[in-house]
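Memo to structure team: turn this sequence into structure tokens by end of day. - J.P.
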Amino acid sequence: MRSLITHFLHDEEGATAIEYGIIAGLISIAIVGVLSGTGGLGTKLSDVFSYIKDKLAAIVMT
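Reply from structure team:
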């Protein structure tokens, strides 16, 4: 029984999974931060697509 507890305390496989989870969480927070906000990339992309949509609609109407 003592060897099982010692083995469990020295096992680091779960720690690696937790570290990957923390890294994935931080990356997702960074992506949300870049894409959101008034000056964020998401707003700029939306403006570009709106511009393209308006130009295409103008071409189709003529």
